Amino acid sequence: MFVFEDIAKLSNRDIQNLLKNVESSQWAMALKGASDELKEKILSNMSKRASDLLREEMEYLGPVRLSTVEQTQQQIVDVVRRLEDAGEITTHSEEGEEPFVQ
Q1: Nearest by Cα to 34 from 68, 79, 73, 63
Q2: Checking phi first, is residue 18 left (phi over 0); if not, alpha (psi -120 to 50) or beta?
Q3: Whole-model pTM?
Q4: Between 70 and 1, where is the model more confident?
Q5: Which of 16, 34, 62, 82 has a CA-to-CA distance to 10 between 20 and 30 Å?
Q6: Is the predicted pLDDT of residue 33 greater than 90, yes or no?
Q7: What are phi and psi of 64, to 5 degrees?
Q8: Mean pLDDT across the stretch 3-21?
Q9: Cβ atoms within 10 A of the Cβ of 12, count?
Q10: SS3 label, residue 43
């Protein structure tokens, strides 16, 4: 079962695809309850300006209800599932990443 924290296991390419499909305001809310590892993975796949704006937005939100954070995280997981069903990202990676061939 794929959960929000599993996003940290996605490849950088898949994270960037996911970033295109999720609003910045959703990321700000969802990352409030996320691990530092996941926050860094998301922020490192954004431009410097976008990551600075997201950090600002997260600070601006202040304390938020856990239920609101979990609801937003679930919305993002739903987007991940939709993208996986469409073949745009891959969530299941065995030990390490599967190599690509040209």
Answers
A1: 73
A2: alpha
A3: 0.84
A4: 70
A5: 62
A6: no
A7: -135, 155
A8: 93
A9: 10
A10: helix
DSSP 91: -
Q: How far is CA 17 from CA 1, 33, 75, 89, in A?
A: 21, 22, 16, 7
| 30 CB burial (10 A radius; 0-12, 13-18, 19+) | buried
Query: Can you say whether the dihedral through the CA atoms of 65, 66, 72, 75 is positive or negative?
Result: negative
Residue 9 is classified by DSSP as G
Amino acid at 49: R
Assigned token pair, 28: 């700000």
Q: Tokens 């929000």 identify what position? A: 4
Nearest to 69 by CA among 35, 28, 36, 37: 28
Residue type, 76: I
